Amino acid sequence: MSSTVPLPPARQIVPMRDLPDPTSVQGRPPSGFEYILIWLCVAIVAVAGAFAGWQFWHTDRIFSGVHIAGVPVGGETRASALLRLHRELTPYPLAPVFLELSPSSTEGDGLARTAVRRWALGPELLAPEADLEGAVTLAYHVGRQGGWLKRIVSQWQAFSGRQSVWPEVLVGEGVVRQAVGDAASEVRRPSRPAIQIGDITLPPQPGLDVDVPATAHLILAQLASGQSGTVPLQTYSTAPPQSAAADRRQSGAGVESSAAEGISGGFTALQPVVLRHEPSGTAFALDAALLQRIMPGGDPSFLNEEALRFVVEGWANQVSYPAQDARLRFDDATSALTVIQPSRAGQRLNVDLTIEAVRKALATSQRTGALPIISIPPAVDSGRLNELGIRELVASGTTYFKGSSSTRVYNIEVAAEKLVGVVVPPGGVFSFNSAIEAVSGANGFEDSAIIWGDRTAVGVGGGVCQVSTTVFRAALEGGFPFLERHNHGYVVSWYGEPGFDATIYTPYVDLRFLNDTSAHLLIQPVVDRVEGVLSFRFYGTRPDRVVEIGEAEYKDIKQPGEPIYQEDASLEKGQIKQVEWAKEGMTAIVIRKVTENGRTREDPIRSVYRPWNAMYLYGPGTVIPGVTDVKEEPTATPTREENRGGDG
C-alpha cells in the first residue's frame, strides 16, 4: 500500500526587475518641500524656546528697551532701576522755564528800556519732586498688560526703543512764588509824586510792580506741559501819589465830603487791605467783599477773627513749604562726603502775626502792612559739610535674607533705598516711619508675607521689617537711646536669635532712637542681593563710650498649641500642605550697658513672643491621620499690638 507524502510549498521566485528599489523608499533624499517643513519645525521650536527664555529672564525684571525719563532701565529689577533713577535723576532734570521781562511790558512806566531781562528757573531752583517709584511700577507693567498678542507687541515696541515712561513731577507753588519774588525784587520800582525844585517842576513818576500770583500761575502751567518755554513777567504800573500841595488843595475843597463819608467809616472801612512780603514780592489782599465778611459793620473793633483766620490759613497753604535736608554719602576709602540731595530752605506764613498785621493795617489810612513770611533753614545744610562732624564709622548692624521670595527682596531694597543718605542732627530723633513714609503700593512696595493677626498672610510690604531690624541692631551697637521699639508677635526665623528684632507698622508702630552724640549721624544701607546680606552703617564722630550687649535671657517658655487644619478648596482630595510652623512663646531680655564719662547706664531690651501654632491646609474630603477633631483656623483680626507689619 503506497502512502502519499505532502511536499513543501514551492517558493515563489520574483524576478529582480520586479523588486522595489531600496533607495526609492528608505534611502531617497528628502524632497524640497520636506526640507522646508523640517526647517520650519526647527525654527518654530527655536523661536518658542527663545520666547520662553525671554519671558523667564524678565520674570522680575523690566523688559529690555524701556526708558524712564531718558534713562534705560530695561533688564533691571525694580529695586535696581529705582536706585539708578535716584542716582541719575537727582535733582530731576526738569525742562527749564525762562521768566522774561520785555521792553513792551514796561511801556508807560516813564523809563526807557531796550534790553530784555531773563531769569532761568531750573531744577536746582524749583526743587521738583518726581514720583520715581510710580514710574518704575509703570515701566514694569510695560509688556505685561492685556492679551498675549498685545503683550508681545508692547514688548517688541520696548525692545525697539519705542516705550518710554515719564514720572509725574510736582513743583510747589510756594517755591515758584519765591522764585518770581526774587525776580520781582530786581525790577520793582516805587512811584513818586511831582517834585518842585525852585522854578522847575518834575512830573510825577508812575511805579512798576509785579503780579506774583498771576506769573506763578503761568509758570506752573508751563511746567505742567513738560516743555521748556518762556513766561512773561506779569507787571503793572502803580499810580504816583499826589504831592503835598495837591493834598492840601484837595483837603480844603473836600473837607465837608471827608467829614460826611471818610470819618463815618463807610467808604474808607471797605478800602482793600494789602499785606506784602518785600524780599519775595508775595502779596495778599483783603478786598471789599472779604472785608464785608470779616468786618460786617465796617468797624475794625468788631473783627470776626475766626473768619479772618480761615482766610489767612488759606494764604499760608499757598506760600508755605517745608525745608529739605541734604542727603549724603560717605566714602570709606577717602573719608569724603558727597551730596546726593542738596538742601533747600523752607518757609511758612505766621498766621497769628498776619492777623495782627491786618488789625494794624485797618487802623491806618494806607491800609498796608508787612506779610510775615518766615524762612525755615534746613537741619542738614549741604553748604556746611565740614561742620557736620561726619568723619568715621560709628556703628553697624547686619541681617541675612538669602532664600527670601523675589517680592520680599524687592521690598527690602525699596525700604533700604528710602533710607540712603538720611542724616540725623545732634539731639535729633530718627523715625523709621517718617523716613520710609507709608508702606503701600503707591509708595513703591509690593505684596509679600506679613504677620496678620495670629497668622502669616500676604500683604503689602513684607520684608520691610528686615530693614527696621537691621537699623535697630546698628543703633543697639552704637549705644543710642531707644524712644520706641517693638518686637514681632512671634519669633521670626529670618532674624536669628530672639530678642534682637524690631517691627514697624505705619503709621502706628515705629522704631525711633535719639542721636545723643555731638555730631550729625549719617545712615547708609548696603544691600547685597546675591549673598542675601543687608547692612546698615552709621557714620559720624565716635563718642567716648563703651557699649556691652549681654546674651539674651529666655524665660516664660510657652509651648505652641495643637496644629490648626483648614480646608482649602484649591487643594486636591488627600493633599495636605503646611503653611505655618510651630514656634515657642517666650520672654527675651537683653541687657545693654553703656559706659560714658564715668557713668554706666543699663538699657533692658524686653521682647514678649506669643506661641505660634503649626497650620495645615487640606483638600476637601481629606482624612487627616490621627486627628478626629479638626480645629478650624480662627479669624485673623489684626490689632495695633498684634499686627506689627512684620514679615512672614
TrEMBL record:
Organism: Caldilineaceae bacterium SB0675_bin_29
Domain YoaR-like putative peptidoglycan binding: 119-231
Top-level taxon of the source organism: Bacteria
Pfam families linked to this entry: PG_binding_4 (PF12229), VanW (PF04294)
Keyword Lipid metabolism: no
InterPro entries referenced in this protein's UniProt entry, alphabetically: Glycopeptide_resist_protein (IPR052913), Vancomycin_resist_VanW (IPR007391), YoaR-like_PG-bd (IPR022029)
Presence of the UniProt keyword Transmembrane helix in the record: yes
Swiss-Prot/TrEMBL keywords: Membrane, Transmembrane, Transmembrane helix
Renumbered residue ranges of the record's region Disordered: 1-25, 235-258, 626-648
Name under which the protein is recorded: YoaR-like putative peptidoglycan binding domain-containing protein
Bias (Basic and acidic residues) ranges: 629-648
